[in-house]
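Student: Please help interpret what follows.
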Amino acid sequence: MPVLILRSQRTASARTERGKSSKEAAMRLYLKDFLKREDGAVTIDWVVLTATIVGLGIGVLTAIGGASNDLGTELDGKIGNVTVRTNGGQ
């Protein structure tokens, strides 16, 4: 990693002479290097996979949310009408 920093500093200083700021040049170099490496593609794959799983979870909860709410209301009505008889503790 130190070689990358030195190389980016050298390139950044060369680009500064052409009118661009050294921060901008260093960021462009870092972005180009990031796009060349494969670990960036793997990161994007994981982000897309995670977003898909979250989207499916939200879809499932939306689909069953109304039905489970209706079932809960129905059970509440039935349980509320139940009376418990006691027989002297037996």
Summary: The radius of gyration is 31 Å. The longest helix spans residues 39-80. The helical segments are 2-16, 22-36, 39-80.
